[in-house]
Fold each of these.
Amino acid sequence: MNNIFPRVLLIITFISSAFVFCIFLLLAILCFDLFDSNIINNFFGMVWSVEEEKYGIILPFLGTLIISILSLIIAFIFSFCICSYIFLNKYKTINIFLEKSMLLMASVPTVIYAFAALFTFVPFISTYINGSSTLSILVASITLSLLLIPTMGLLFLNSFRTLSSKYENTCLHLGLSKEQFFYQFILKNSIPHMLSAVILAMARAVGDTMIVLMLAGNALSMPNSILDSARSLTSHIALIFANDYSSLSFKAIFLCAFLLLCSNFILILSIKYIQRKCNAI
Amino acid sequence: MKKLLLILTLLTGSAFSSDLDAFKNIKDSLNIAGGTAHIKCEKEAIKNIMRTYPDISITIAGGGSGLGIKQVSSKMIDLANSGRTPSDAEIKKGDLKLYRFAIDGIGIVVNKNNPLSNLTTKQLQDIFSGKITNFKELGFKDSQINLYTRDESSATRKVFWKKALNKSKIISSARVVASNAAMKTIISKDKNAIGIISLGLVNEQIKLLNLNGVKPSVDSINDKSYKVARGLYLLSSGEPKPLAKAFIDYMRSNTGAKIVKKYGFIAVNE
């Protein structure tokens, strides 16, 4: 029995990684036709317009980067503050409330966040902040950050607690206060874990479709400020999916998907790299 | 008196349900997808059918006319909703059969608190090409216009571009929403919005604009004074299966026509 379980796990892991690899391979093969010097130039331009036969996917790619980085910054600030507060706070009721709220946030489907923002946040922004911005990068990023707060926060908390359970007694007996213990020991030592949590959240932000599709406005022009509208790669795929299979605009989907998968792979590899470095230390 | 009432009820009941008789003895499921303007009235028809015949299951999804045409051509769905006539190449490729059951207008809409009530074709072209960006240029208070359009696979966008804009350019910074319903939601929330929508979805939450002084309505579409209109089609690839055929017939029956009219479309049967 003891031998079977790890083997089953190994097989399942193997099958799932084979699936991911197959998807990657499939996309690479589907994109292969496009790597013809005449066609590929079509895709790496700034203009997407089916009427003018221009299929540049640089703008959606930039849109993805801008929205996910902005949401990551917002989510990092909030999740870090919440976790530090939970760690340092003595009142158990508040801690339990905050932690359970984060768990609850993690279980809310993204479409619910998008809907709620559409009916509350969008009219608020247009009435009180700037009349010309309703569906915008700012709205999408703030809503997306709600999705990232629990992803990062729960991992932060986990790493704080693991370190603290090992070293808290020793450090406190050496004369450190709880705050000193947190700032000078826990924070310094949990940086690699926090970085991997950030990268995991980034992967989630890059891959999210519903929130950006409903809230970012999907305009295909270069945004001048965060109050302008932008389109992400994921919503671009969702919006051009209806084009004819044989058209270049449909083939652009494969390239978008390939880019998305590549960027996620790069992010995951960087997690591995950081973890390895951390273990070496 | 009671008997008379009973007979009357039975008579009207049987007259109402007669259009549903075609669904008798059918136990099947039907998948419809595509244009989003059709959904509201088809949903009511589906409710009538499934309430009377619980063995029948009909699902309906959006995605835009382009997606509908593509999916029905590859037999992923049984019927496609389309807000435009498919191109000759599309008809040939998917062996498409067209069934028109309604005519729908496409209206230009603004937030209900917006004082704007009329636009000329020239103004409309200038707004959608980005030459006019502020309500001040139209003679109203100084606030930036938030322009909303539909995605490229939408028939609403295609027909509007052809018949209202006379194929003039739509600026790339216009925000893009994925369905008629989403358009209604955002226009009702954004006080500086201008967008396009199927007339079937217009209600008191948003304000419909006159185009060149003509109010878009069933009458003005009928007498051809409002030209931005299109047929609503159901498409099948090859001959439709019995349930799909029954559904098409129901949408074009008298009961179907009543539903179609209720949602602000013009019923047709051809």
Amino acid sequence: MEPRLLQDLKKLLGSDAVLHEPEDLILYEYDGSVEVARPNCVVFPRTKEHIVGLVEIANRYKTPIVGRGAGTGLSGGALARRGGILAIFSKMNRILEVDVENQRAIVQPGVVNADLSAAVAHTGLHFAPDPSSQKACTIGGNVSENSGGPHTLAYGVTTNHVLELEMVLPTGELIRIGSSALDSPGYDLPGLFVGSEGTLGLLTEITVKLTRLPESVKTLLAIFDTLDDTTETVVDITARGITPAACEMLDGYTLRAVEAYVHAGFPVDSAAVLLIDVDGVREGVESQAEEVAEICRTHHAREVRLAKDSRERDLLWKGRKNAFGAVGRLSTTYYVQDGVIPRTKLPATLRRITEISERYGFPIGNIFHAGDGNLHPLILFDARDENQLKRVIAAADEIIQFCIEMGGSITGEHGVGMEKDRLMPLLFSEADLDLMRGVRDAFNPIGLLNPEKIFPNKKGCGEIHIRPLPVAGASVA
Amino acid sequence: MSAASKTASSHLPDIVGAEHVSTDPAELGACAVDGKLPSVTVCPGSTEEVIEVVKYAAAKKLALIASGARTKLGIGSPPARYDVALDMTRLNRIIAYDPGDLTLSVETGTPLRKVAEALAQHRQFLPLAVPYFDRATVGGTIASGVDTPLRQFYGTPRDYVLGMEFVLGEGVRSKSGGNVVKNVTGYDLHKLMIGSLGTLGVMTRVNFKTFPMPVASRGFVATFESLDRAIEMRNRVAQSPLTPMTFDLLSSHVADLFSTPGAEQLAGSAMPAGVLSPGLWALTIGYSGKENVLSRYEAELRRMAAESAADNVTVLGDRARAAAFAFKREFIPIALESSPATTIVKISVLAARLKDALSAAIKAAEANQLLWAVMARSLGVIYFALLPTEHSQTSLRQVVAATNQVLAAGASFGANITIPWCPSEWKSAIKIWGPERHDLAQMQKVKKVFDPLGIFSPGRFIGGI
């Protein structure tokens, strides 16, 4: 790595905020996906001025720069695919302002999702997007990926809760878009930037809406003996116009893993369960819970349990939110997909996933946001076996292909990143992609910021117009 | 008519058929935007025909404005150029509606009424209760970005538009999003189209999330002698566990506005008697649910109204609520009809500043001897109608002074202020887009990508975009 670049970084941030030894960098070549890419250096900015300075340095040396929160992403969004500088936001983790009366908060991008809700819990408010990784993932990462979570079924995903952004563009300009008050005049720039996967700007401040906690919540656990009964129940709940706060499905395979790990009381001999939250004013919740329970029984639920108290509810949800971790105990590696389907197609899709699992010989656990048709098949395999990795991707591609045939999409909340860019042409024409690339290039003209993400490279021309740096210790293609 | 426009009227029939092209003065007049007439109107019947028309316009550098029922063309700056009026009303098909998935894909020229009827058969709806509801189309509604009383609960189209197809400034078909309720594949470009006044592309299809109709709804209206008391109740409700569907504040003059024959015609019925009282502020709250939920709301609202010293309280059953709702929905057209020079200032503020913003606007109106009326969403969006008694230079001076005073006051509390509606001839004198935006340069970048030749609604948008 170029010594002058390193010197400039250390001068800007201090020596202790710059890592460049191979043994340090190796920690940052992963995220929650199966992708790997090693940065040339890792830096820990503490202020927005640092971000401006970093972008200036990146421009000076024509080296890529990639923002990263907690690295919990599931599509390689925060990996330095072309090497360069990986900027970790963990030290920009202050909640700058909480405005209870107006239900707003201004946070730095490195604030951990659950920390914001915890900080405002005493006011009866919370930050609604709740990814399963919420105890680690950052709000900056949530904004970049437009993250979801179980309760986004009723409350919406991150973009529905973001009002204003401050960021540094790849040109080095510090800009603000949107406004804390509603209806910022002009184009909906926050609507564009949220979910742009860190390809348009590096966030420095985020203004979010805070949502009032519901007066009452009831959690139901419906236990089924067949997958079909489970999925038909979800279809029926949707069709009857009931929108639970959350409607999660865990299949038997996953349940057994979760139960062994969390001891939440999940029935290990069932085919699947639905974990359903209904919330709102007390009177409405009671009748809605009864209605949901009745639909479950109509579809032959073996048992419908109602969590007795908040302790029991928290335990069930702990099981759900730690499910990926639990499955991780069964297998060295898993590959998680994030396809979305119209909800009426759930039964057919789950049957297809079972068939694919059997045909390829990989166990597949299903634990997902059934209420909005957002699948998360976890395909278990051994990454040390290169042949397995290839076959796992083939199996996953078949699932995605089926989702698209059903009228669905390739990612509901994990993002495209460097994992699904090659799948984009399944949904978008070259003209569609050209427009998106055009928007990216308008803000990120030389591909300095998070290069080679979201969009597949066009044939015959490399997307990035800058040379990768020679790397000390390791080589990055 | 320019030479290029002249060739247009001879070439466009090849694309859409002669019967769908017109240079008839009456037709052109009907498509006027702020007094500016197109040279030709063209009415394509498919996305393919839209593409061909746009390609043609791009080749000849003709300025094009797409419209549906033309009910909201008054919003925005006068066009810098205007050659072709693109009438989208033949693209009026419901492409796909899956009640089980609660998703809908519809062509943009489709009337909202037609969509509502199709959804009602499955007890579903779209929360697009926008002004001129009986005539408005999907495309105009989305392009104009107008809000509705239902945003209190359902949000705005950015919250329930799932995807879109549109034609770009060089005649290329493009799309973003999809037709599933959760999706992060690619950039959310469709969000940029919402409220863009047709400056980025011609929308041809919009995919929506639909919503189940509530089992039953009620309305609750509390009247107050002072704004302070009304705001006090607003705050009590906002801090309670209640989640109303609609939640608006109406000023004391609105009772008179709503009792005119013109207003009744726009709303489709008469305002239920005794609900609003001249001289009193009214807080109107819509809520829904099963009987036990409705009773809970009523009890809580009655208690809060009493605590806030409400003058009077009315509970509206399903039918009366729907009638009163139509008046709220049509507040803007009603205000526009009630004065020869209505000017509506939209002020968005943080909810805690609602009272400050309202007080500043009232002060500005009264200091300039202007009548006024207000509908304010509890979320912090105020529609402040200035109602001059005549269309004259004196009125213009008064309105300019009043709007400038509102803009000056708003700057001190972070308000977004625009003037979406005022007489066309006044637009050069009034800062209709409010103060200069610091993010304008970013918007210009976006415009250039979508419409590099600048043929879509040139000059109509913020900052001359």
